[in-house]
Amino acid sequence: AFHTFAWADLIVPVNGTNSLNAGYQSLACTQLSVSGELNLNTGTLATIKNSTINAGGVVNGHSGLLEVNGDWINSGIFNPGTSTVKLSRLCGVNTINVKGVTDFGNLTIDSAGGKLTIVLPPNTNQTVSDTLSFVGNPKNIEIQGGPCSGIRLLEGAKSVGQDANVHLAPGVWIGKTPPAGCSGGHAAIDNKGVAPVRTNDA
What we know:
Blueprint: E1 3-5, E2 10-12, E3 17-19, E4 24-34, E5 37-39, E6 44-53, E7 58-60, E8 65-68, E9 72-74, E10 77-79, E11 84-87, E12 95-99, E13 103-104, E14 106-110, E15 116-119, E16 124-128, E17 131-135, E18 141-144, E19 149-153, E20 158-160, E21 167-168, E22 172-175
Parallel strand pairs: 1-4, 2-4, 3-5, 4-6, 5-7, 6-8, 6-9, 7-10, 8-11, 9-12, 11-14, 12-15, 13-16, 14-17, 15-18, 16-19, 17-20, 18-21, 19-22
């Protein structure tokens, strides 16, 4: 496979276009900032620290992979295709803040190597159209946020690797339908204010 390593931030400026080649490119824990257009194609952009899609910026996921080891900030447009965004802790960051609203194709949360906390913005639904995957030790994954911080599985989407050991803070939910009182919600909620979550919410 083709591998390249970058030791500086990858910046796609306004009116700029960057299209990845097939293969693997590491940012070596530097930053990704997109104000123009980034096309993943079939490539892998790995070991990103913070990933920012600025207002007016566009990322076309195609069937590529983005591996983010810091904050995920989306103020622009993310067209997922069948791509995967992987949130992990390879850059020594134990907490990843998700900012904005993103429609993911595949979303992987990987706690390999230790505890990983994902913080979702309040009153938002991140969506997944294919597979939400939990990798590593489920006991090391905590999802914080609230009120009404959700990861919504769209029709046909599934969750794998999730069990009762994945800790959801009060006000955080994962599933097909938002809980009552949240945008689009009609389902019953338990006494903690979060929707019941099954290992496979199909």
